[in-house]
What we know:
The structure is a single chain. This protein is an alpha/beta fold. The chain has a single domain, classed as Rossmann fold (3-Layer(aba) Sandwich). Helix content is 49%, strand content 17%. The chain has a five-stranded parallel sheet, sandwiched between helices. Strands 1-2 form a two-stranded antiparallel ribbon. Helix 2 packs across helix 5. The two termini are 18 Å apart. The N terminus is likely disordered.
Amino acid sequence: xxxxxxxxxxxxxxxxxxxxxxxxxxxxxxxxxxxxxxxxxxxxxxxxxxxxxxxxxxxxxxxxxxxxxxxxxxxxxxxxxxxxxxxxxxxxxxxxxxxxxxxxxxxxxxxxxxxxxxxxxxxxxxxxxxxxxxxxxxxxxxxxxxxxxxxxxxxxxxxxxxxxxxxxxxxxxxxxxxxxxxxxxxxxxxxxxxxxxxxxxxxxxxxxxxxxxxxxxxxxxxxxxxxxx
Length: 229
């Protein structure tokens, strides 16, 4: 389906009626702490024809590529490769988060490929005429100097959740040790800074119904802000 259009008298052709103007996709960047529910909010904001670009999903595909699996085996040992032949992400994370040099090496292998995929998916979503393109990219602000994605966003949405609740979710859903969220976030920009940069704040401490209502309110406002080309 073609994206919706509208006409403006100022765009009138000298030889005929006003030319239709297309509604450009609105690019929405998601900010927030670990286990705040960023991916759930990204998916909700992308409904009704939008596109969510999930950097973590792309990173998993890149990490599982045969060439990179062999690099990981050689650099970090066979124990970071699971029985199914794909990387054991928990063991790999434990290894690299304890060693800044190892983390930098891994990111040097994965980040360029992930960035290229994100930019390709973004271009494809723009061409498709999607009303919204939601970038669910960890460290969107921290790594903007490398990937430039934050500067491509028309709007930033911060997903807020209580620190204790986020830690509980990480323990329950990810199998992390208590306190691991705080440890990892110590190397990131403060959440207060990310919240200040956001155009909208959405709270994710309540029920699914409350979250849905908050998303709907933001969607209404986003449609008002959608640029016209």
